[in-house]
Amino acid sequence: MSDTGSLDALIQALRRLPGVGVKSAQRMAFHLLQHDRGGAEQLSQALARACEQVRHCERCHTFTEGAVCDACLDPARDATRLCVVETPADQSAMERTAAFRGLYFVLMGRLSPLDGVGPRDIGVQKLLERACDGVVQEVILATSFTAEGEATAHAIAEALKRRGIHVTRLARGVPVGSELEYVDLGTIAHALADRR
Amino acid sequence: MSDTGSLDALIQALRRLPGVGVKSAQRMAFHLLQHDRGGAEQLSQALARACEQVRHCERCHTFTEGAVCDACLDPARDATRLCVVETPADQSAMERTAAFRGLYFVLMGRLSPLDGVGPRDIGVQKLLERACDGVVQEVILATSFTAEGEATAHAIAEALKRRGIHVTRLARGVPVGSELEYVDLGTIAHALADRR
Ligand SMILES: [Zn+2]
Ligand SMILES: [Zn+2]
Fold first, then answer.
1. What is the per-residue pLDDT across B49-80, written as a single tens digit (0 to 9) for each?
2. A83 - beta bridge partners?
3. pLDDT tens across B78-123, in order?
């Protein structure tokens, strides 16, 4: 339909969202134009504004609108502990525990040789400089407990240890609230080995 | 994080898309800002442009950028047959069969009393006027074969028949390529009753 160029363009643009195929993109475009034009305009403006405003913190690499993020600027935080996470979402999860009052470094990814994501793409050099500022005494690796997250943690740990930095890793173990019967065997084995 | 207002606003705006929860919205925002700012800007512009340009065809109610859509303006089409579908996506599916050369009326929805969608919301009055233009000889109901689609077809058929319009419905039957063993019993029963 040649008279629906801007509708077709919208469907194509929606397909660039992760996890959105052609059917979902059609359904989204239809919903917005038929039932929620206010939502479409809001999303258009939010996208433009975020592209304009959001950049990376100079110290921890997370998303921020200033040069340095609020967490890095907070004098109440313990600057001797640096927690390394993969994404801002992981950082939020850690914050919600209220169990950590140190600072963060956000990799914005993880090593993934198959996808061509190497140490440079996740800012490892920047992390090394950050961790060697003379204030940081412990780097806590909180990357995912997946193959890629473990490989990332391992590579960073090796590099930091060569520079004499004390490195720790989140404990592996049985999730709180789990019945042992339903926990996978690898997790149980780790929980046994790391018993305390 | 108070320094990420425009990121939070983007996540909220993405949640207005159908089928997108808070986790998906976070993942989409993260992906766009980290890996595809070009895509974010493209989507922003496509949304704004579609909101500005896309409206409903005066004759068939589908999405178009002119007053009347290309299909309704096409003199090669058979104006004596009018096919009633629920959405532009259904209309596209019908077009791809290349088996129909008549005109369309797009309801942009279906009757759904539980969701408060009544005859007025799907333009039934407009359809009745359209079908009684003196040219249309047959109205083919191609709404979904779901409870709501069937109720919609039934309500429209009754109204059209009262006005003396000849109404037909797409045949129900066994899908092409199906093995009978795997077809649901209701479909087989209908295929038997409608055998030819
Ligand atoms: Zn920071
Ligand atoms: Zn039309």
1. 999 999 999 999 999 999 999 999 999 999 99
2. A104, A140
3. 999 999 999 998 898 888 888 889 999 999 988 888 888 888 888 8
- Kindly report the nearest CA distance between residue A94 and chain B, in angstroms: 13
Residues A81-132 have pLDDT tens digits of: 999 999 998 898 888 888 889 999 999 988 888 888 888 888 888 999 999 9
Distance CA B88, CA B104 (A): 10
Could A31 and B17 be called an inter-chain contact, meaning their C-beta atoms sit closer than 8 Å?
Answer: yes
Instruction: Please list, in sequence order, all residues whose beta carbon lies within 8 angstroms of the beta carbon of residue B19, skipping any fewer than 6 positions away.
Output: A24, A27, A28
Pick the residue from chain A with its C-alpha nearest to B37.
A51
Interface probe for A, chosen from B17, B87, B96, B112 (most Cβ of A below 10 Å), is B17
CA–CA dist A156, B120 (Å, integer): 63
Contacts of B67 in chain A (CB under 8 A): none
Model pLDDT, residue A166: 94
Alpha carbon distance A153, B62 (integer Å): 54
Distance B87 CA to ligand 2 centre (A): 13
This prediction's pTM:
0.81
Chain B nearest C-alpha distance from A41 (Å) = 6
- CA nearest neighbour of A104 among A129, A122, A87: A87
Q: Do B63 and A33 touch (CB under 8 A)?
A: yes
Rg (CA), chain A: 21
Altogether, the residues listed in chain B come to a count of 196
C-beta of residue B138 within 8 angstroms of C-beta of residue B166: yes
pLDDT greater than 60 at residue A2: no
Sheet holding B78-85, edge to edge: B102-106, B78-85, B138-141, B166-169
Q: Which ligand is nearest to the CA of B70?
A: 2
Q: Which residues contact A115 (CB under 8 A, 6 or more apart)?
A: none
Q: How many H-runs (helices) and E-runs (strands) does chain A carry?
A: 8, 6
Rounded to 5 degrees, what are φ and ψ at B56?
A: -100, 140
